[in-house]
Amino acid sequence: MNSEQLWGTRFKTYQKKVMKYAKYMMNDHFMIVVFFLFGFLLFQYSTWLKTIRILEWPLILLISLLLAIVPLFGEIATYVEEADLHFLSVIGEDFKPYFKRAIRYSWIFPLVMNFIATIFVLPIFMQAYGNGMIPFIAILVTLLSLKGFHFMIQKSIFEGKLPRNSFYNVALYLVNSICLFGILSFIPKVFSLSMAQVLAVLAIGLYRFASAKTVNFDWNEMIQKEQVRQQRIFRVIALFVDVPFLKKHQAKRNQSLDIFVGKLTPNRIHPYRYLLVRTALRSSNYVTVFLQMIVVTVLLSFISSIWYWIMAIQSMMMLVICFQFASLYKHPKAHSIYIHSLYEPKEMMDDFIGVVLQLVIGASIMISLLTALVSRNPFVLVGLLWYPVLSTVFLYGYLKPRLNRKKKRR
Fold first, then answer.
1. Which of 73, 144, 181, 299 makes the best surface tag, with the fewest CB within 10 Å?
2. How many CB atoms are located within 10 Å of the residue 174 CB?
3. Strand pairing partners for 169?
4. How far apart are CA 309 and CA 30, in angstroms?
5. How many C-beta atoms surround the C-beta of residue 365 within 10 A?
6. For residue 410, is pLDDT > 60?
7. DSSP letters of 148-201?
8. How far is CA 295 from the centre of its chain?
9. Beta strands of 234-373 (E only): which ranges?
10. Which cellular component, as a GO term, is one annotated location (predicted)?
């Protein structure tokens, strides 16, 4: 078996692993929710499109900033493993066919994403200018060229031609925004196509220039990036079903969050409650998900300008946030097993529900204030009262009985 065939074998193994659990995520209830949410978004989008008459630079800038994120989605899927550091690293040039096939396959997801993004923003330019062919070609070519830059940098890092730097994505986002704003500003003129062609030629030229240099694969970087990429996919699936391949994050102290630990656990006679709060605030996955859900909820709120639709969307997202913290109930066992012998299950459950409720109420306050500040709609402040009530009913009326039933079945 050569290296190219090895990549194909690993790809099939990984696909079977993912599809085994992804099928539980794509159930009937999930698809119904996605279908209705997608229909609602399309309706609101079409209603907003009718208000566009002239494309002014603030709207073009906003579109550019949003589209600049799209080329950053998708990474090179190498499927390398930790053992490859010892077994594949010695084959040298024979690893190149494996790596080239990985790059070719990795283009599939960006092609789909960039095409969908182009189709999504195309009606804006058609509504303003009436011509859709020039905007379609200009936007799609630009996005694919910018994705080429992203892959070129990642490929160069894997091949040991560029040092690792966490600021590459920030720099790429700024470059993407500038290029998109410049090209979109000239639509529907033919000059925008010329600019997109120049960008494509530049991307191909730089890619060939970088490929001509000597290769010295950075195996540690490839293995680390591949593990992070796969864990990101497993984490999404884990929102719907237990995934054994998901690695647990270690809890690390973040001194900037210590003040919240004291506020959430004022009573020191509840060590388990303190353990829950400490785990939530010191585990990067919980803090990241908490902040991401707040940002996503606020962004989704701008789908509609009607206050009760905003509250309906945010109410659903509040329930999702409650679900996100359901795994917190089992997480502390990995840190302190003996503490579970000191408390009754009912008392532990009450502490868990209380901590989650405090976190969700904190999120609801931030979401309501941010939405009211940006939308300038005072009616959304009703959420300051409604979301805590909704979360309390959901946690005590649904999540708590469900977790208790699961414990009894075990």
1. 299
2. 11
3. none
4. 21
5. 14
6. no
7. HHHHHHHHHHHTTSS---TTHHHHHHHHHHHHHHHHHHTTTSTHHHHHHHHHHH
8. 11
9. none
10. membrane
Structure tokens at 207: 């890619």
Task: Match 């283009």 to its residue by tokens.
Answer: 107
Q: What is the pLDDT of residue 336?
A: 55
282-292 pLDDT, tens digit per residue, is 766 677 778 87
CA distance 70 to 268: 47
What pLDDT does 143 receive? 93
Q: Using CB atoms within 10 Å of the CB of residue 144, give its burial: 0 to 12 exposed, 13 to 18 middle, 19+ buried.
A: buried
- Bridge partners of 283? 251
Q: Is pLDDT at 335 greater than 50 in this prediction?
A: no
How far is residue 6's CA from residue 13's CA, in Å, rounded to a whole number?
11
- Of 301 and 219, more confident: 219
Q: Please report the pLDDT score of residue 139 as a whole number.
A: 92
At residue 105's C-alpha, the angle toward residues 213 and 192, to 5°, is: 75
Cis-peptide, bond into residue 401, ω within 30° of zero: no
- Residue in the structure block whose two tokens are 């102290």: 253
Contact 353, 380 (CB under 8 A): no
Q: In percent, how much of the chain has pLDDT > 90?
A: 20
Residue pointed to by tokens 């579109």: 63
63-91 burial by CB neighbour count: b if 16+ within 10 A, else e?
Answer: bbeebbebbeebbbbbbbeeebeeebeee
Percent of the chain residues topping a pLDDT of 70:
86
CA distances in angstroms from 4 to 7, 51, 222, 238, 304, listed in the order given: 5, 53, 17, 31, 49
Place of tokens 């010892």: 86
Is 353:395 a contact under the CB 8 Å cutoff?
yes
193 within 8 A of 137, measured Cβ to Cβ: yes
Enter the pTM of the model. 0.68
54 secondary structure, DSSP code: S
Query: How many helices and strands, by DSSP H and E, does the chain display?
Result: 17, 0
